[in-house]
Design a protein that fits this description.
With 143 residues, the protein is of the alpha+beta class. It has helices at 12-24, 29-35, 55-61, 82-95, and strands at 40-44, 50-53, 101-106, 112-122, 133-139. The protein has a single domain (36-139), classed as PAS domain (Beta-Lactamase, 2-Layer Sandwich), CATH 3.30.450. It contains 4 helices and 5 strands.
């Protein structure tokens, strides 16, 4: 059984700092995301395809740099949750809002891991030409 009290928590203050840095410097979004070492961060387009992923995100899921780019985010989602999380992604793009919560995800080896995620909406980063991009912040306790 999973105990929420034994897992670390996402640093909401850090996510706010990163969101502000990106908002203040949208042309440097990739550099800002790449500089983050504690949180895994990915950017998905309006359809849910990875546009950019930082090294920590790759480490959490066990992928090599560049391996997830162009793939659908459901690559790291258990099959039985694909539709539910695609709907959640679509609602986020439409409403620009999502709560911070824990999720079961799947790493490259097919193992289920627990993460906590928060998200931000941007329509001016990673060459998105005004279309919505979801920036997801992921915390995973490696212990």
């Amino acid at each position: 059984m999973f105990n929420f009290f034994t897992m670390g928590r996402i640093n909401i203050f850090r996510t706010k700092e990163i969101k502000k840095e990106i908002a203040d410097n949208p042309s440097k979004a990739k550099e800002i995301i790449d500089a983050e070492k504690e949180l895994g961060i990915c950017v998905t387009d309006e359809n849910g395809y990875y546009v950019h992923v930082n090294n920590r995100y790759n480490q959490i899921y066990g992928y090599d740099p560049g391996e997830l780019t162009g793939k659908h985010f459901t690559t790291v989602v258990p099959k039985e949750m694909h539709q539910r999380l695609q709907t959640a992604h679509d609602m986020f793009i439409k409403n620009e809002y999502e709560i911070v919560r824990y999720w079961d995800v799947v790493n490259k080896k097919g193992e289920t891991i627990k993460i906590q995620a928060a998200a931000a909406f941007f329509n001016n980063i990673c060459n998105n030409r005004g279309k919505g991009h979801k920036v997801t912040f992921v915390y995973h306790d490696d212990e």
